[in-house]
Every structure is written in structure tokens, then in C-alpha cells.
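Structure first, sequence second, as always.
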């Protein structure tokens, strides 16, 4: 059998317990790979298990001594695929045809501005039909076209999870722990994905895929890195801990391959200079599960015969090792760019979501302070590289990161074309829960003041994640700044704590036992279940058919908030069907580790193709739907889908997606919200048309006054839904308006003709 790459030949009579002179040295594996580097001498006594013998590998062994196992991993490696893909494009004229340096939100929005956000494991399909085949169904795209949906974000569909030995292990985070560029067979294949892009194009739509630049799963790349194979350790933030320091490390149980470090071990390793220690926050913090952002591997035999233990960084779960964007090998960068090129080139997608891309730079901070891990310049640079490459091949990107508004602005200045709207998402939920838009007006205004325009945001209803209420902007960088709120001044930290507490009180038990707190991040709920809680329902069984119209009206109100402002509007199958959360007993095994989000990810059947099916192909239980299937809804004028269709027609007709938001004025009633926009369309006077989105976040009718200095004096106020005149702007730049329960009005201002006598 061939010798493992990097293995060293030793004397046949050398034993593990042989005494070694202290000055004896041995060349390490990386010196064999890179002989030009200065030799780093390591005492032979530090090498656990001593040396190995040539041809000693067990052909069944899943370790670095078995060349067959190593090559089996290499064939599945994302880094290997990336090297092949990049060579196919290098030197091609197609790489020079598109501008790429600057983000262009309006160009991105013009490609597709209403997105259906899919979640692969929750879509119910026909028997023996894959997820991708279901999304390639022309009947589904006809329905999407009727409603006004122009893009589908597929969600992650490539291989994910991990590898232990010769076996694959399941995903630990909904397929966001990617381990391959290949389509996961559970969702379909590459040919079906390509057919889906063709069907989408035939119906005026486009496809959006995912890349995950911040981490992978524990797949072939991570296992090769653990075995110190070639430049694979450079993919990750991983540090080899010498055996004489292993007493600092916790033991790894036999059924595990790593364990999380507690804060004391994190501090001890940081003090000795192995890791940078504590980061700015611990996402998914859970005592005894994830107390720090660092984990340690069990002993791993490398391709050179050396047994190592590694400490590695993971911003998210233990099975999601973080990618290192500034390693001398640039292995991580090559891996991520290769994955992006595969989606855009081979699969034919138009855009990519950059998942959790705000955590690409990490650096040791001053003594006693947490490491700099958010808003780092390297994150900005890495996003520039990714987004520039995508634009260079004709696509666009959007980023999903929950950071301060300044960080979102700075990351997007040269990076992704669009960002997910984590700024206003918890705020509009709070407005509905409390009947008060004050905090929502604060978030909208702060966003504008700090340079994040709504046209650059993806405004979403429910997706696969929780209702995020970390309120990072207020709770971190601005925690000591003062803000006027409810006739007093609160610090950002106090404000964040207050908003979180009010959301928990209004939306979870005892007020509602079907929405669950998710660690420190937010609340697991659907849009419909959130609304049900705000309307006084304590249990799922208390929601009857008589309650559906009120829930539907509030749901359409939230759709109007997101759709009747500049930027992308996104919604999911759970929104389209009015899905409720699953009873926790139906997903008890999935939420056992604290990930309560599974209650909101119930299976759903968009077209009604499998009415008797109780679970998706991936095993998710069917959620209760309040609105019915899309074909059924489109037969009824008062249904959610039909009324959403009318709402989106207005959005399209007046081009609100690419408008400019110019004011978020004070309101006469706390439940009202007024957004003032300038459309790109010019009126008869050659001036931009002024448009108003006016919403009532309460279940009662409101008589109020709309006032803004941006309103043209004497302008006629017209309701776009019926072209009827509503009022006239008076000399105080205001007009009265009545708006019904959960009402939404799209108003246009028509400037008066000039008075000839005044000239």
C-alpha cells in the first residue's frame, strides 16, 4: 500500500517508549509540504504515539494513515472542487464583461423584487418527487406569476452535515453546515436545479441560491484539516495544541468528536497565546452546551502519523467550524469562491445569499477586552471580494447579518448589493404586539440617518429563523447612548431590554403557549402564530375559523409594511398558507437541545398536491394552515393570496421597489405609521411623485392626521387602490385620514396646477 502523504520512515526497532535525547528533532509535516519555509524544529518527545512505519495502514481505517480514506475525503472536498472550477473560468473573456466594484441595490432589485423564500425540508411534494422537482413545476410558477412573485430563494440545498469515519452525519443547522458543492440527493440533483432555473426564466422569474462564507460543516474539508493534510488546516481558525498542554483541555467522550470549551479553559489557552479568547458575544449561548465560541477535537492521527488535538473557532454551533479568511494559504477564500462560482455558473442562479457573512474577521483586542469579531475590516474586505466576484460573473448578492446599522452600512458599502432587514423586523413585530409604532419609527429613522436606505434591504415576513430580537445596534455599540422613548430618555441597552421583555410578554407563555423563546436570539413563531398571540389566543386550539379573517387582515398589514417601501419584499410558504407553529410534542426530539425554531418550520403543501400526506419527505410534520392552498385561495377574492396579489400589483405599478424614502414623520395616533417616498416616476410638472404608505397597527379604526414637511402644499391625496380622491394637503402640510382596523393605504399626491394669476 502506498505511503500516506507526508509520512516519515523510521527505524524498524523504534518503540513508543524509547528514550529520546532532548536535542533530537524531527521535521514536521508542513515543512515537507513547503520546504522553502524556515525549518521549525520540534522535540521528538512532543510527538504523541512516536513515529509510524511505512505501509502500516489498515485499509478499513478512517484515519490519516490510510491513503484510501484520505483520497476518499479529497474527492468529496469543497476545496478540491473549487480548484477545478476556478481553472475553468480563469482567462475567460466572460470574467471582464460586467462592472463589479460597487454594489448596486437598484440594479439588484430590478432583477427580482418579490421573493418566495423556500425551506427545503418543509415543502410537501408529490410522492417520489424531490424538492427541486417541485420548485421546477410550471404549475407552481404560474401561481407565483399570478400573485406577483418574481424570484425564488431556494434555501440551502447542497450537501451538509458532517463525516465521521466513512459515514455522513446529518445537518446540525438546517443545511447551513455545508460540506459539498454537490446537490444533496434528498433534494434532487444538478440537472433538476438547472431545469428549475429554465422554468423560472420562462415565467419571468429568477433563482437565488446560498453560499456560507463564514463556516462549513464537519465534512471532508474539516476532517482533512484535522489530519494536517496539505493546506487544509488553513481553511479554518484552528490551532494545534501541543501534547504537553493537553492537560488544559477537556476530555472528549467516545461518542463525540469534540467538546465546547468553558470560559476558564478559553481564558487559559488565550493566556498562553494559543487562541484569542473571548469574542464580543456567544451566539446560541447555552450553559453546558455552548459557553464559548471555541471547541476542542479529540486526538486525531494525521497523514504524517502525528496525533494532534486542535482548538477551533465556531461562531455558531460546534459542527460549524469558522472559515479563516486571512490564512497565508487562502484556502478558505478559495473554497468559498469556488462554491459561489458553481452556483452561478453550473446551476444558473442569478443571485446568492451570503449567510452570516459579518463574522469573517477576528482579531485579538487590547488586554482584558473581548476579541474584535464584529464589524471587522477583514469582514468588509472579504465581502468585497465575494460580492465583486459575483458581480463580475453577472450576478448579485444579499447578506444576512444582524449587526449594528453602521456595520451593515459599512459592510454593504463595497460588499453585497442588498442586506436583510434585521433593523426593522423586530420593530414592526413590536408595533403590532403593543399597538404602538414609536420604536418602529425610531428604527426607521435611525437607519436613514446612518445611511442605510430601505432600497438596499430585503424586507421579510417569516423565514426559517426566529423572530430575532437581539437588537444588536442598541444593545452593543450604542448601549450607553440616550434615546427619547415614551416621554423619557433610555440608554440603548435599557431600550433593547425593554423591547425584548415586551415581546416575550406579549408573544410567549403564559400569554401564548405556542411561541417559544429561542436562546438569547429571539422567539420561535410563524407570522400567523405571532398575530394570534397579539389577538389574545393562548393556545392553538383556541383559534377557530371565525378568527381567521382578523389574523389574515393583520398578516396583510405586515405584508404591506414590507412591500410598500423600497427594496425587496420576501415571504415564505408559511406566510402564503397562514401556517401556525407545530405543537412542541410533534418535534420534541428536534427541540430537545434547545433549538426551539423547529416549531415554526412545519411542513406545507402550496398547491394541494398531497392532501393526505402528514409529513414532508424530510420528516417534518404538516403545520396547520389557516388560509388553504394557493389554488383554493386564488378562487376567492377575499383570501390572503388574492389580496396579496392586489397589494403587489400596486407595488409593481408605481415602482415603489426602487423609490427613495424621504421621511418617517410623527403621527397623531400611536398605532399609525406613515412612510413618505419619492417615486422614480415624474409627474406632469417634471417632479418626482410623492407617495405615502399609511398603516394602522391596531385592531381598531383610527381617525388621525398625516403631516410631513415633504408633502406638497395643496396637493390632492389619491388612494391608488381605487383612484379616488381622499383629501387635500393644507397649509400646515397635513391632511386628515380615517384608516380601518389593520388598515393599509397606498396614497399618491398630485400637485396642483400653478395659478396663472400668481405669475
Amino acid at each position: 500500500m502506498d505511503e500516506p502523504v507526508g509520512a516519515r520512515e523510521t527505524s524498524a526497532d523504534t518503540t513508543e517508549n524509547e528514550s529520546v535525547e532532548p536535542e533530537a528533532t524531527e521535521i514536521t509535516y508542513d515543512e515537507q509540504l513547503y520546504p522553502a519555509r524556515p525549518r521549525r524544529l520540534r522535540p521528538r518527545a512532543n510527538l504523541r504515539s512516536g513515529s509510524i512505519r511505512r505501509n502500516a495502514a489498515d485499509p478499513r481505517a478512517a484515519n490519516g494513515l490510510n491513503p484510501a480514506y484520505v483520497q476518499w475525503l479529497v474527492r468529496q472536498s469543497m476545496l478540491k472542487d473549487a480548484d477545478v472550477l476556478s481553472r475553468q473560468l480563469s482567462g475567460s473573456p466572460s470574467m471582464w464583461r460586467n462592472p463589479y466594484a460597487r454594489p448596486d441595490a437598484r440594479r439588484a432589485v430590478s432583477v427580482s423584487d418579490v421573493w418566495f423564500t423556500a425551506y427545503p425540508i418543509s415543502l410537501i411534494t408529490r410522492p417520489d418527487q424531490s424538492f427541486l422537482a417541485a420548485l421546477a413545476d410550471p404549475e407552481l410558477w404560474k401561481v407565483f406569476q399570478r400573485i406577483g412573485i418574481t424570484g425564488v430563494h431556494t434555501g440551502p440545498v447542497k450537501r451538509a452535515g458532517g463525516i465521521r469515519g466513512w459515514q455522513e452525519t446529518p445537518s446540525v443547522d438546517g443545511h447551513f453546515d455545508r460540506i459539498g458543492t454537490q446537490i444533496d440527493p434528498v433534494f434532487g440533483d444538478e440537472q433538476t436545479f438547472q431545469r428549475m432555473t429554465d422554468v423560472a426564466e420562462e415565467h419571468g422569474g429568477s433563482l437565488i441560491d446560498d453560499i456560507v462564507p463564514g463556516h462549513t460543516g464537519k465534512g471532508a474539508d474539516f476532517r482533512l484539516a484535522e489530519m494536517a493534510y496539505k493546506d487544509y488546516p488553513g481553511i479554518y481558525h484552528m490551532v494545534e495544541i501541543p501534547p504537553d498542554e493537553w492537560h488544559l483541555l477537556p476530555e472528549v467522550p467516545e461518542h463525540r468528536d469534540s467538546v465546547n470549551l468553558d470560559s476558564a479553559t478559553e481564558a487559559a489557552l488565550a493566556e498562553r497565546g494559543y487562541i484569542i479568547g473571548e469574542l464580543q458575544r456567544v451566539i446560541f449561548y447555552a450553559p453546558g452546551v455552548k459557553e464559548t465560541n471555541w471547541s476542542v477535537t479529540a486526538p486525531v492521527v494525521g497523514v504524517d502519523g502525528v496525533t494532534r488535538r486542535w482548538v477551533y473557532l465556531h461562531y455558531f454551533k460546534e459542527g460549524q467550524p469558522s472559515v479563516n479568511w486571512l490564512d497565508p494559504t487562502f484556502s478558505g477564500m478559495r473554497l468559498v469562491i469556488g462554491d459561489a462560482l458553481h452556483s452561478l455558473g453550473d446551476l444558473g442562479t442569478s443571485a446568492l445569499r451570503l449567510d452570516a457573512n459579518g463574522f469573517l474577521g477576528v482579531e485579538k483586542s487590547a488586554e482584558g477586552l473581548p476579541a474584535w469579531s464584529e464589524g471587522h475590516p477583514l469582514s468588509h474586505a472579504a465581502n468585497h471580494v465575494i460580492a465583486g466576484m459575483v458581480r463580475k460573473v453577472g450576478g448579485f448578492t444579499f447578506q444576512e447579518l444582524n449587526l449594528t446599522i453602521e456595520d451593515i452600512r459599512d459592510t454593504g458599502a463595497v460588499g453585497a448589493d442588498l442586506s436583510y432587514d434585521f433593523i426593522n423586523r423586530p420593530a414592526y413585530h413590536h408595533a403590532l404586539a403593543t399597538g404602538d409604532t414609536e420604536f418602529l419609527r425610531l428604527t426607521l429613522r435611525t437607519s436613514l440617518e446612518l445611511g442605510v436606505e430601505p432600497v438596499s434591504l430585503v424586507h421579510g415576513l417569516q423565514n426559517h429563523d426566529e423572530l430575532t430580537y437581539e437588537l444588536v445596534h442598541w444593545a452593543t455599540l450604542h448601549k450607553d447612548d440616550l434615546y427619547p422613548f415614551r416621554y423619557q430618555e433610555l440608554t440603548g441597552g435599557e431600550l433593547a431590554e425593554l423591547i425584548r421583555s415586551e415581546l416575550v410578554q406579549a408573544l410567549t407563555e403564559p400569554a401564548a403557549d405556542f411561541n417559544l423563546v429561542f436562546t438569547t436570539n429571539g422567539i420561535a413563531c410563524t407570522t400567523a402564530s405571532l398575530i394570534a398571540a397579539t389577538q389574545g389566543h393562548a393556545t392553538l386550539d383556541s383559534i377557530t375559523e371565525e378568527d381567521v379573517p382578523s389574523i389574515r387582515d393583520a398578516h396583510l398589514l405586515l405584508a404591506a409594511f414590507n412591500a410598500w417601501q423600497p427594496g425587496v419584499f420576501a415571504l415564505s410558504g408559511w406566510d402564503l398558507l397562514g401556517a401556525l407553529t407545530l405543537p412542541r410534542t410533534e418535534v420534541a426530539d428536534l427541540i430537545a437541545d434547545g433549538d426551539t425554531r423547529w416549531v415554526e418550520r412545519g411542513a406545507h403543501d402550496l398547491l394541494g398536491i398531497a392532501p393526505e400526506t402528514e409529513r414532508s419527505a424530510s420528516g417534518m410534520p404538516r403545520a396547520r394552515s389557516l388560509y388553504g392552498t394557493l389554488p383554493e385561495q386564488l378562487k376567492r377574492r377575499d383570501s390572503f393570496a388574492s389580496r396579496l396579489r392586489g397589494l403587489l400589483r400596486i407595488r409593481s405599478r408605481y415602482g415603489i421597489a426602487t423609490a427613495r424614502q424621504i421621511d418617517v414623520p410623527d403621527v397623531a395616533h400611536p398605532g399609525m405609521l406613515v412612510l413618505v417616498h419619492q417615486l422614480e416616476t415624474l409627474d406632469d410638472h417634471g417632479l418626482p411623485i410623492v407617495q405615502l404608505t399609511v398603516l394602522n397597527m391596531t385592531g381598531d379604526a383610527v381617525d388621525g392626521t398625516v403631516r410631513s414637511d415633504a408633502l406638497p402644499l395643496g396637493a390632492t391625496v389619491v388612494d391608488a387602490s381605487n383612484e379616488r380622491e381622499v383629501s387635500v394637503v393644507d397649509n400646515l402640510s397635513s391632511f386628515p385620514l380615517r384608516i380601518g382596523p389593520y388598515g393599509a393605504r397606498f396614497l399618491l399626491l398630485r400637485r396642483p396646477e400653478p395659478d396663472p394669476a400668481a405669475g
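Margin note: The chain has 21 helices and 32 strands.
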